[in-house]
Amino acid sequence: MKKLSRLLMVAVLALTLSAAAFGQDSPSNPCGDKAMHGGSESGLVFQINDPMGRNSVTFKSSAPLEDIVGTTSDITGTLYFDPTNPKKGGHGQLTVSVASLNTGIPLRDDHLKSADWLDANRYPEVALKIKKVEKVKSVKSTESSDTYDVTVHADFTLRGKTRSIEFPGRFSYLRENDKTSQRLPGDLLAARANFSVALKDYGVTGPEGMDIIGSKVGKAIDVEVSFVGNTAVAMAGNPCGEKASAQAENPCGAKAVAGAGNPCGSKAAANPCGGKAAKNAGNPCSY
Known about the structure:
Elements: H1 2-25, E1 44-48, E2 56-62, E3 67-72, E4 75-81, E5 90-97, H2 106-113, E6 125-141, E7 145-158, E8 161-174, H3 178-181, E9 188-198, E10 220-230, H4 231-236, H5 254-258
Antiparallel strand pairs: 1-4, 2-3, 2-10, 4-5, 5-6, 6-7, 7-8, 8-9, 9-10
């Protein structure tokens, strides 16, 4: 019996160690060494969520009877970019809440969010999923920063409809220093881009029979995005800490996979493992 118990203990230990080793090699595992920086496949992880509200999306409608300019600072998301190999481009996703859109006139804002326009109750978010960044061209390089002009390929989702768009942008990677720390801790990635969306592509028609689009509201809306993401926030979101493999609270341990120690919860949006979780045996987000 003792011999059988020892054999079982050895087997369990071997399985645990092999699962942990597999987890550390997988870029989808938030607890592995590579996960802190998004994995060798993705580069650094930049979280977009400025508590000071300095990030912005500005949208403009130009029509014969009226020009409308609106803004929001409620931008959240994540970008992956490798400053050591910028030619690989990047990817990520940004979201903006429709409820936060502000045109400067409260009644107009209410109309904008109503079912006749963006229908905030049914479609509370506008999303930009950055699928690919290419044609990366260096614009300026210093000891503390590198700036690139890029072409962005993305899926834009508005009022429940998604369309593929392409537009030029500019990325600036800034290494952490005394000046950048005054904005946000960690390395920073500043991004700017402009693009246009046609309202008809997203089923936005305005009140039926009033023919407002084209006269008071432009058929196309010009959008300008400006934000700064930082690595420090992304690292703080790692449930394993900076030295995951050495920490007792590492949720990638043997018990975490099976039980209540799972940091991922039931909602996909809160899952730090991404879509590859199910393929990773050592991943605490595998169900």
